[in-house]
Design brief:
Its EC number is 4.1.1.96. It comes from Ruminococcus intestinalis. By secondary structure, the chain is an alpha/beta fold. The protein folds into 2 domains: 128 residues, Lyase, Ornithine Decarboxylase, Chain A, domain 1 (Beta Barrel); 210 residues, Alpha-Beta Barrel (TIM Barrel). The chain has 12 helices and 16 strands. Strands 1, 10, 11, 12, 13, 14, 15 and 16 form an 8-stranded mixed sheet that branches. Helix 3 runs parallel beside helix 4 and helix 7 runs parallel beside helix 8. The protein is globular. It starts with 9 loop residues before the first strand and ends with a helix.
Length: 375
């Protein structure tokens, strides 16, 4: 099927742009010997896992289901971190995960008898209490009152027996300068423990595949850590793997007027791109501009009953008409993994675009997908 023939709404994964991202990530691995994992919380389209596994070292998970998906469909290394683990899940986690990161020493000790007798490498997540977020407080693990990671005041040197690694994750869509400054804070508070470690995990939030990302600074930091502490270094970006490698195609169903022209779309911010409301942010839209930048300005909204289900205001060179198709960009990440069926909204199909003339419909959803979530 051609790109222009796809039914809306649908997510489209751009295979060629995905490969470009993967090549950049692999180049960091090749230059440093570090290992880069896919953080599935941002992108879990397992139809491309066989492709991604040719470039990356494995996956990381935030719970049992993600761990199972990575283990079954990606292969290679499977890592997991969660603020707390359920007892009923832990036996299966031990069987499929090679690395387990605990959020607290109480969780470490709760499961010590289990992990000490299993073939796993165990780590502790650290909280350096060093915030670099600006405007994304919801994604700041170092904010006051954060539940994520062990602070210096709560660190238990006496419980490190068997602990082989340390993990920190403080970034969100950031460049390597924030990683460098963060590591200085981590090293100042916890560095003396790294000499006895086997690995350090720098977490995610690294926008390595962004055009302005300073890869050299990242490479230099990795080599510094490897040389000083003789450890294996892991990174687990999610967004960077599929950054700008996907689209959400939608159709204009109606146009209403209330102070300005409002487009009613068959795609929804609340259902199909929740980060638009949660973060919030204004997703890029192909061939559009900011409000009043171009001749025709519209507010883009949805056909749900939620008054605030608004994607944003955009302008266009020409008048938009009912039946026109719009293409939101950078829609591979935090879309498919977070979507929902509020209001009975259909889930968008998932499409893999090998090229514009060869689009493969991977998955279509129906009423049953809505019904079977309920009882």
């Amino acid at each position: 099927m051609k790109f222009t023939e796809l039914k809306t709404p649908c997510y489209v994964i751009d295979e060629q742009k995905l490969i470009k991202n993967l090549e950049i990530l692999k180049s960091v691995q090749d230059r440093t010997g570090c290992k880069i994992l896919l953080a599935q919380k941002a992108f879990s389209a397992f139809c491309v896992y066989p492709l991604m596994s040719k470039y990356l070292s494995g996956t990381t998970a935030s719970g049992l289901y993600e761990a199972k998906l990575g283990h079954e469909c990606f292969g290679k290394e499977t890592h997991i971190f969660a603020p707390a683990f359920k007892e009923n899940d832990f036996e299966e986690i031990l069987k499929i995960c090679g690395h387990i990161v605990f959020n607290s020493f109480s969780q470490l000790e709760k499961y010590r008898n289990k992990w000490q007798n299993a073939d796993v490498s165990v780590g502790i997540r650290l909280n350096p209490e060093f915030s670099t977020q600006e405007g994304h407080e919801i994604y700041d693990p170092c904010a006051y009152g954060s539940r994520l990671g062990v602070t210096k005041a709560n660190f238990r040197e006496d419980l490190l027996d068997g602990v082989e690694g340390f993990h920190f994750h403080t970034l969100c869509e950031q460049n390597s300068d924030d990683l460098v400054s963060t590591f200085k804070a981590v090293e100042e508070k916890f560095g003396k423990y790294f000499y006895n470690a086997k690995w350090l995990n720098f977490g995610g939030g690294h926008h390595i595949t962004r055009d302005d990302y300073d890869t050299k600074a990242l490479v230099d930091l990795i080599k510094y850590v490897q040389n000083k502490y003789d450890v294996e270094v892991y990174l687990e970006p999610g967004e960077a793997a599929a950054l700008n490698a996907g689209y959400l195609i939608t159709e204009v169903m109606d146009i209403v007027h209330n102070g300005l022209d409002i487009l009613i779309l068959d795609a929804s911010a609340a259902c199909h791109m929740p980060d638009v409301l949660e973060m919030p942010y204004r997703p890029p839209l192909k061939n559009s501009g900011k409000p009043n930048e171009k001749a025709f300005t519209y507010r883009l909204s949805s056909c749900t009953c939620l008054a605030g289900d608004v994607i944003g205001d955009y302008s266009f060179d020409s008048e938009v008409k009912i039946g026109d198709r719009l293409i939101f960009e950078d829609m591979a990440i935090y879309s498919m993994v977070k979507n929902n069926t509020f209001n009975g909204m259909p889930l968008p199909s998932i499409v893999l675009m090998h090229n514009e003339d060869n689009c493969e419909v991977i998955k279509e959803f129906s009423y049953n997908d809505f019904k079977e979530r309920l009882s």
